[in-house]
């Protein structure tokens, strides 16, 4: 830190509030001083090349950046810029707004709300306290951050293909040196990564043109998420290198998805990913996900390998880092041999349980899902819970609007399948021609198509629709009149021989793992 300043020697009288304890946590780039109610983060005077905090001015600027970036998603945690100054009685910590004379400044820092480390989501995960609803909350938090984030200008390098691939190549350069025993695996991974990049260069360019390259979080994993009351907040954005935060929003999302998947919780990983995609509708970019998921895993492998260079590490810590490095390399490698994806089409009358069942399937298979009820409204600028006041066959439910909706679903299903991940299309598919378009999409790509036909007794269908109408919380606006129209006007859609059909009686308890096995058996049949 600044000459003569050691955070470990701070005393209670320095702080402008009561102090119940003083505890100092050290990382390789900062000190965090805990006082009971508030935490104070100070930058170390270090220069690692990729970050430079070597001067007081640079640390001041970094603190301002940290505050600006983190106020976007965690205003309840980041409380302001503080200055440690020389006073007549020694050191004193004051708000930066008091504008002390520069000659009096010892150090700049950030005041934060102190929270228990047990509230961080990595600790919550280890304690078995994370569930699907938490993933929905995280998705809402990150989607809101991305929606309001600044968009990269065309003249900036962020998001250009070469800017995207360079960090991935740097990972391999470091790991070849740090993990020479992994050479063959790294060769395979590097070849796959370069092939993925080459295959999607035009999509990377389009992502930037579409405004999907933004000033993101940059370090979005479980350790940087915290439960505060009923909210889950993202904190500790990357402030020291703009190249690491001016990224594709799906690179940000891929980090957390990977962190959950590598912990053997693909169900939570896909719950989060689907909830995020459904909020913003960013299905067209799904093809870049495998590249980014692999890249994020290799980042973690590289970080673990770099930490192993510390000769003073305790043996237990060294063993843990060695395992982490190997785990992340193995996870990235597992993406290479993934099976071809399956296209799953939900099918059935209104109230037959298609959306409920598809939610279970996306976590179990796992899969990406796109919903006709949500996308129909999105195409008309409406939120999923909006009341459209459209009658049967009118407004957003006209024949033209329905054709547009299914065309949109088809295009996005194709984009999602290019990610090599199973895809679920949640729609009624009561028209034979519309289903056939999706079956043929799978056939052209030599992929398996499975139709999950949801069935239930008519009285139960009516009961479910009546209850849904009373609750008013579902994207679907189908009511009893719609059901009656479906019953009068259609029968089950015909199924091409290239598709398999699995029938599910949703009036009974559904064996979800068994159903997933049936779908996967169709894939291999």
Structural description of this entry:
- The longest helix is centred in the middle third of the chain and has 20 residues, at 315-334.
- This protein has 525 residues and is an alpha/beta fold.
- It contains 18 helices and 15 strands.
- The protein has 3 domains: 7-114; 121-334, Aminoglycoside 3'-phosphotransferase, Chain: A, domain 2; 342-524, Rossmann fold, CATH 3.40.50.
- The radius of gyration is 26 Å and the shape is globular.
- Strand 4 and strand 5 form a beta hairpin.
- Residues 491-497 have low confidence and may be disordered.
- A 6-stranded antiparallel beta sheet has the order 1-2-3-6-4-5, covered by helices on one side. The chain has a 5-stranded parallel beta sheet with strand order 12-13-11-14-15, with helices on both faces. A two-stranded antiparallel ribbon has the order 7-10.
List the helices and strands and how they pair.
Layout: E1 23-26, E2 30-34, E3 38-43, H1 56-70, E4 78-87, E5 90-95, E6 105-113, H2 121-126, H3 132-148, H4 161-178, H5 183-199, H6 201-209, E7 213-215, E8 225-228, E9 231-234, H7 242-245, E10 246-248, H8 249-262, H9 266-280, H10 289-307, H11 315-334, E11 342-347, H12 354-364, E12 368-371, H13 372-378, H14 399-417, E13 423-426, H15 432-444, E14 448-455, H16 458-471, H17 480-489, E15 499-505, H18 512-524
Parallel strand pairs: 11-13, 11-14, 12-13, 14-15
Antiparallel strand pairs: 1-2, 2-3, 3-6, 4-5, 4-6, 7-10, 8-9
Helix pairs in contact: 3-9, 4-5, 4-10, 5-11, 8-9, 8-10, 9-12, 10-11, 12-18, 14-15
């Amino acid at each position: 830190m600044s000459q003569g300043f050691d955070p470990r020697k701070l005393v209670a009288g320095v702080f402008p509030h009561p102090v119940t304890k003083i505890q100092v946590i050290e990382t390789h780039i900062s000190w965090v001083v805990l006082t009971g109610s508030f935490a104070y983060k100070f930058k170390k005077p270090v220069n690692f090349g990729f970050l430079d905090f070597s001067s007081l001015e640079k640390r001041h600027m970094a603190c301002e950046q940290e505050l600006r970036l983190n106020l976007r998603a965690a205003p309840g945690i980041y409380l302001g810029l503080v200055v440690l100054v020389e006073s007549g009685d020694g050191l004193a910590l004051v708000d930066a707004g008091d504008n002390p004379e520069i000659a009096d400044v010892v150090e700049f820092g950030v005041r934060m709300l102190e929270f228990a480390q047990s509230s961080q989501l990595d600790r919550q995960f280890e304690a078995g306290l994370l569930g699907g609803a938490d993933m929905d909350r995280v998705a809402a938090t990150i989607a809101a951050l991305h929606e309001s984030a600044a968009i990269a200008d065309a003249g900036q390098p962020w998001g250009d293909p070469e800017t995207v691939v360079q960090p991935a190549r740097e990972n391999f350069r470091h790991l070849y040196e740090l993990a020479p025993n992994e050479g063959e695996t790294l060769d395979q991974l590097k070849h796959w990564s370069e092939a993925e990049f080459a295959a999607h260069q035009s999509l990377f360019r389009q992502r930037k043109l579409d405004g999907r390259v933004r000033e993101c979080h940059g370090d979005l994993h479980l350790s940087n998420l915290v439960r505060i009351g009923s909210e889950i907040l993202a904190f500790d954005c990357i402030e020291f290198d703009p190249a690491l935060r001016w990224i594709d929003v799906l690179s940000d999302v891929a980090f957390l998805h990977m962190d959950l998947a590598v912990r053997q919780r693909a169900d939570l990983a896909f719950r989060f990913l689907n909830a995020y995609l459904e909020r913003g509708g960013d299905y067209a970019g799904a093809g870049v996900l495998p590249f980014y998921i692999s890249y994020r895993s290799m980042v973690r492998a590289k970080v673990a390998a770099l930490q192993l260079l510390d000769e003073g590490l305790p043996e237990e810590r060294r063993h843990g880092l060695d395992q982490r490095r190997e785990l992340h390399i193995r996870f990235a490698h597992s993406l290479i041999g993934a099976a071809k994806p399956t296209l799953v089409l939900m099918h059935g009358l209104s109230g037959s349980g298609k959306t409920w069942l598809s939610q279970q399937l996306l976590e179990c298979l796992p899969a990406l899902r796109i919903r006709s009820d949500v996308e129909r409204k999105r195409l008309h600028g409406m939120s999923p819970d909006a009341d459209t006041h459209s009658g049967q066959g009118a407004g957003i439910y006209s024949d033209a609007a329905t054709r547009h909706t299914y065309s949109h679903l088809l295009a996005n299903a194709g984009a999602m399948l290019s990610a090599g991940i199973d895809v679920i299309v949640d729609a009624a598919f009561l028209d034979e021609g519309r289903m056939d378009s999706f079956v043929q999409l799978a056939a052209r790509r030599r992929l398996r198509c499975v139709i999950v036909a949801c069935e239930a007794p008519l009285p139960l269908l009516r009961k479910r629709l009546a209850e849904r109408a009373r609750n008013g919380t579902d994207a679907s606006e189908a009511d009893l009149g719609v059901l009656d129209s479906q019953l009068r006007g259609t029968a089950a859609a015909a199924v091409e021989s290239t598709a398999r059909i699995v029938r599910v009686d949703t009036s009974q308890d559904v064996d979800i793992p068994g159903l997933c096995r049936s779908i996967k058996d169709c894939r291999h049949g």
